[in-house]
Write a structure and sequence with these properties.
alpha/beta; Undecaprenyl pyrophosphate synthetase; 6-stranded parallel sheet; 9 helices; 6 strands
Length: 278
């Protein structure tokens, strides 16, 4: 996998006791986490626990190179490997990647089939690395409509890595946030009809517990590549207070240095969550 060392020099004071305490907490979960060694100018507490990425620009990248769109998707898979490695080394807890949306079925049949084959190849090709690094795979999205070989690969790798705990790689495959929220509402409605829950007592935690991201922290940072200024039906409930970082870089060109730039941007944000800071 690609190295994530950023050789750019940023003057930083020696880490204080608080920074070392945060680092130690990270390393209890992931002994390989080394955010101070990679980004010494960012306090470890400012490393997002959960990063979500809309990986856009594969097709445009391929067109610029004079290749079919499928070639861009293969190149994008290489960026996935590098960013997973970078997040792992920085001590991030969860990385969620928007891999295939419900709307992506509208694309040409050949492109969709190539994406499904790429999904299988990625899952099978990374399984041993996930086990070696104690990475857990989690997949969110609708199972209906996915080809059986894709479902088999998802289930196989998910089961193999289910007890891993250093880092979670979450792939949103056949995912749409509106559909996810509709299903959560239906599930709560069924419980209310059965008398298991009082509709008047349903709160945000109840609703969140019926989403496919149950058990994961909400994203702190949402990155979108290729410059588009929209969230494309991705984690609409979960990104309510996420910080947004949009880059013009196309996904196949997005590497660890681009991630580091996004994290430096994030570290400068004043996250008020609707309140006031002093």
């Amino acid at each position: 996998m690609a190295t994530t060392t950023d050789t750019t020099q940023h003057a930083s004071p020696p880490p204080d006791a608080d920074a070392l305490a945060v680092l130690q907490a990270m390393q209890r979960r992931n002994p390989k986490a080394n955010p101070l060694g990679i980004l010494p100018d960012i306090h470890p507490a400012r490393i997002p626990a959960h990063i979500a990425i809309i990986m856009d620009g594969n097709g445009r990248w391929a067109n610029q190179q004079g290749f079919p769109r499928e070639f861009g998707h293969r190149a994008g898979a290489g960026s996935v490997r590098g960013i997973v490695e970078a997040c792992y080394e920085l001590g991030v807890e969860v990385l969620t990647l928007y891999s295939f949306s419900l709307e992506n079925w509208k694309r040409p049949k050949d492109e969709v089939e190539a994406l499904m084959q790429l999904c299988i190849a990625y899952l099978e090709g990374e399984r041993d690395e996930m086990m070696r690094r104690n990475i857990r795979l989690r997949v969110i999205g609708q199972r209906d409509g996915l080809p059986p070989p894709v479902l088999e690969a998802i289930d196989r790798v998910s089961a193999t890595t289910s007890n891993n705990s250093a880092f979670t790689l979450c792939l949103a495959i056949n995912y749409g946030s509106r559909a996810e929220m509709l299903e959560a509402a239906r599930s709560l409605a069924r419980r209310a009809l059965a008398g298991d829950i009082d509709p008047a007592a349903i709160n945000e935690s109840d609703f969140a517990s019926h989403l496919t991201t149950k058990g994961m922290p909400d994203p702190d940072l949402l990155i979108r590549t290729a410059g588009e200024m929209r969230v494309s039906n991705f984690l609409l409930w979960q990104i309510s207070y996420a910080e947004l970082h949009v880059t013009q870089t196309l996904w196949p060109d997005f590497g660890p240095k681009d991630l580091h730039a996004a994290l430096r941007d994030f570290a400068q944000r004043n996250r008020k969550f609707g309140g006031l800071t002093h």
